[in-house]
Each structure stands twice: as structure tokens, then as C-alpha cells.
Request: fold
Amino acid sequence: MSSQIDHLLDETRRFAPSEEFVAQTISSPELYERAAADREAFWGEQSRDLVHWHKPFTQVLDWTNPPFAKWFDDGELNVAYNCLDRHVEEGNGDRVALHWEGEPGDSRRITYAELTAEVKRVANVLEGLGIGQGDRVAIYLPMIPEAIASMLAVARVGAIHSVVFGGFSADSLRSRIDDAGAKLVITADGGYRKGRVSALKPAVDQALADRGEGEQQTVEHVLVVRRGENEVDWVEGRDLWWHDVVPAASAEHTAQAFPAENPLFILYTSGTTGKPKGILHTSGGYLTQVAYSHKYVFDLHPETDVFWCTADIGWITGHSYVTYGPLANGATQVLYEGTPDAPHPGRWWEIIEKYKVSIFYTAPTAIRSFMKIGRSVPKKFDLSSLRLLGSVGEPINPEAWMWYREVIGAGKTPIVDTWWQTETGAIMVSALPGVTETKPGSAQVPLPGISIDVVDEQGVEVGNGNGGLLVITEPWPSMLRGIWGDPERYRETYWEKFEDQGYYFAGDGARLDEDGDLWLLGRVDDVMNVSGHRLSTAEIESSLVAHEATAEAAVVGASDETTGQAVVAFVIIKESYLAEHEPAGLAQLLRLWVGEQIGAIARPRDVYIVGELPKTRSGKIMRRLLRDVAEGREVGDTTTLADTAVMSIISAQVK
Ligand code: PRX
Reply:
């Protein structure tokens, strides 16, 4: 990490927004001033301005029982009404909500009026199936308009969605369905990925099959969208085709108001233990901050802009900047089903040209893979509609930042590098594009209304020019409200480390430069970041040891030029297994096994079969040393190992 820091410190380029950009921006330095003058009053103003409250709130924040916050607690709203009906009532029903593009090239243009009618029908179907306030609905869908309609319909009836990324395996889906106790699953036969139909329904069938003793089957129905036209198995009485029930339902549905703290969704994310955490978000505060950040960070002009966030709805970025932020703000956006390179490597740029996308939000890993292919591909397309670019999910290296600005942004668009997490719900750190002079590689400054600091292990401010741990020092509206079913784990994971100060510990290392700008330096815990996706070393290790061949496993995140980090596994094979099986092909077998168990994103880049793992005298695996091997570096200090010879054996085995 130290070479990375040195490299970052050499970065002196600065880019002020152009006069043209400043002339039209909706933000101003005054936002910072108002927020600094009275933070709570500022959030109250933002919420009243951006959200329609059926019943207005009288108190902004209740922080009498930290770390359990209540925002706008006595107010009532309907999140779906905010994203749909009110735009129609305000005369914007004909505005395009979604320009949907299927991977094979089919497309649909859906207005706010049409999306509102569709969501009302789905809400009626949900209520007909007995889904109401507080019930959990799992959503396992490709990037099709029905995915957004499903999320909003669940929100509309006051229920809680748990979206599970379509790339996750049946096992991962099953544990999420069970943890949340979902009553309904909404899925599709399949969706298009990389030029072919990838089936989804079989994973749902498998996830719902074979409940063992003591395991409760909570799912009553499965609602299935037809997209892939692939053959599916059918369970009579449980499964329903979307096209049978949704079009037949009434398009009349009155949105009922729910309390501000009514849970909106659970989203599972990897932590430092083997079991993913169900991060819980509620309604009023979440909607306020996603609408606010979407408006100001992306300088949104809803009448003229075309926004495109490339994230899948299975991740928090898709929740906040595909579904809730843009729709709450009445934006027009692009929704794309497939992969960036199907059927050709210029697919994304072709889509930007086709829909005249003006604001584009993606992850550094994508930018780096386009850099590898070369600028000749994007150069073939007219990208002149772009006026603002965003980055999210992992640190963006200055080279990728510059390429993004020059090649995609014609050397003129501001770039906003946005730092946030599943837990924070919305963007926390970012430049304001019409105000801030940007620096390649730095996420820069907390948004107005957000309080962030960098502290040492004791919680003491490190001050400008120093590195430490990123903390959030004041509660914020879209903060997680807990971990589903485990309030104690919530307190322990995020609040215990800086209990005396009352700070939220984000798990990220960061540095403040001489100007006080933030530079994110990656996770300081056992969470990896692969292509902007969070993976836990413990979760992959437990999947590896679940294989009959494995005696022990250790997983590390090693730096990777394209994906930021890559999963590298070191595995000891059982003697008994080797006695009966050939060792050849074992590494590949284990790679695929992890893919099946968790999902393709968790598949290790490398699996090394080794004789031993480096452990301290107390038996703790020293991942730092394994990371040295995985990154091809000289192995660091081994003096605390129980057996100091182990590392040279491992290094030799890996070679
Ligand atoms: O390490 C940080 C990194 O991604 C983590 C959060 O991952 P997740 O909950 O999956 O949410 C990703 C999308 C918001 C953070 O703890 N991260 C996210 N954005 C940035 C980042 N690291 C550096 N710069 C960013 N802009």
C-alpha cells in the first residue's frame, strides 16, 4: 500500500469545472454553508423539498438511542408514490422514465404514466397474494423493467424487498430467502448475458427445494416473468406467470402512507465473517438522501438529462441510483440488460450515442477494462451528449480517471468519484461537479450535511497530510438502521470500535491531503473488493472447506490490474482425498466449486495447492504473507510465525 500512497501523492493535476458547466449548474457553495450552519435543519429542508410527505414530520432526527437512529420519525410517506404518481400528477406522465435496452438489441420506452400504471397492477397482484406491510419479498431478476416495477410495487404496499443479484448461486439465494423469511419470490425464466440466455428459474426451484428438518419454508408463491423464453419447471399452485396475472390486474391502486421508518429493503452484503449481513434500510431518510445526492452530485436537470448508471439492481448502487434516486427526481434514464461487450466491445458507447446519455455513472473496473481494449473502440461513437461522468465502488487510479475524462468525456466533463457503501445507502463523499475543482484519484469532500473524518486507532483525528481510518462522525438520513435479525452484530461491527467517540467505522483506510481532500486506500478488514463488488475472505474460505477435498483454506485479495483486487486461494488437500484422486485439475475444480456455491464473481482467480499455511503461534493465519506471495512480492516479516520455514515452502510451491 505504501507504494500506492507515494504514487497518489505525486498527483498534482487539478480540473476546475468549465465556465459552460458552471453557468448551468444547480449547485452552489451555499449548500455547504447552509448545511454547516444547521445540519439537521438542512436535512429537514432537503427532505421537504425533494420528498412528498403524506403527513409532514415535525422532528428531523431522533438520536436518543444511538446507534439506532430515527429520521423524520413522525412523518408518513409512500416511497413508490414519490417515484411515480406525483410526477404524473405534476403533468410529467409523458416523460420517459426508462429507455430499456435488451442485450440482443430489443428495446422498450416506458413513460412515467406507463410505469405508474404497471406498478399499480403489480401492487394489486401482490396484495392479492397476501403481501402487505412488513412482509419480505425476494427479487431475483435480470435487468429488465419488471425488476424496477417489482421493487416499487413491494415498496408501494409497505413490504420489504430483498433483491438478490442474478449472478448469485441457488445456495446464496436460498440463504438470503431463509434469513429474511421471504413470502414471495419474483424471478424470470432467464435473461440475456454475454449473448445467450442465462436461466434463473432453476436456481429458484433449487433454493426452494428440500427443506431439511427444522428449516421452514416461508415462500408461498413464485411470480415468474417471461424473458428468456427458455423451458422452465413449474410447481402448480406455487408458481404464477407474470403475464397471466399482472396485465389482468387493475391499474387503479391508491398509495397508502407508511411511517418514515417503515423498512424499505434488506440488501445482503459481505462482511468479515462467513455469513452475509442483511443490511436494513428504511423509507423517509433513505429516500431523502438518495434523491438529494442524485440531484446535486449528478447536477440533474430532469427535463433534459438522460442518466445512465450501469450497476445491476442486485447491488446498492442499483437500488439508489437506478431505482430510487433517479425516479424520485423524475429523471429519464437508460436501463441495459446485458454485458458491456455483447455483442461487440463498443456496446456501451453505442447505447450512449443512441439515447444521447448526458450523465454516465460506472465503476473503475469497467473503465480499466475499456482502457485495455483501447480508445479506438469508443472513438467510433458519438459521445458528445455526455456532460458529466461518475465513478463508484473502488478507488479509481489517476490513470483510469484521466482516460475516462479524455477519451469518454472529450477532455471536458467533470468526473465525480463517489465514496459510499451498502450501509451508507447513498453517496457520502464526492465533488459537487459545478463547484469543486477535481483531482484525479481523490474522492475529495463529504457532501453538504455529511460529517466525515480520518482518525487513528484511538479515534484521534490525524489531520491533513496523514492517513488513518475513515469514520462518519454524525448520523445521516440514509444510514443503515441495522442488520436484519441481529441488532447486536450491527452495534459491534460498526460502532464498537469508536464507541467513546460515537463514530461509525466504515472499514476503509483513507488519507487527508494537505488541502483536506480524501483519498480512499481500500479496506482495512478481511473484505475484498473485486470489480467493485464486496467479497468476504471468510465466506470463500468456508465454501472451499465445504468441498470434500479440502482440509484447510486461506483466501486473500491480491491487487489486480483490471479488477482492482482478485481472489487468490491457498488450499491444503486432505491426504485421504489424495489417496483416491489425481491431483491434476484440482485447482480448477475448486475454482468452479466456489462459483457454484456462491456465484461466479466469487470464483478465485488462482487456487494454489499448498502443504501448509502460515500461522502464528496462536494459530491465526497470516494473510499478509500470503498476499505477498499472491502479488509476487518478496515475503515480509515472518518472525511471528510458529514455523518460519513455511513461507519459503509455500513460495516454492506457488512457483
Ligand atoms: O471500500 C469501499 C469501496 O467499496 C466499499 C463498499 O462496498 P459496497 O457496499 O459493495 O458498495 C459499493 C458501491 C457504493 C467501501 O467500503 N468503495 C466504494 N466507493 C468507493 C470505494 N473505494 C474508493 N473509492 C470509492 N469511490
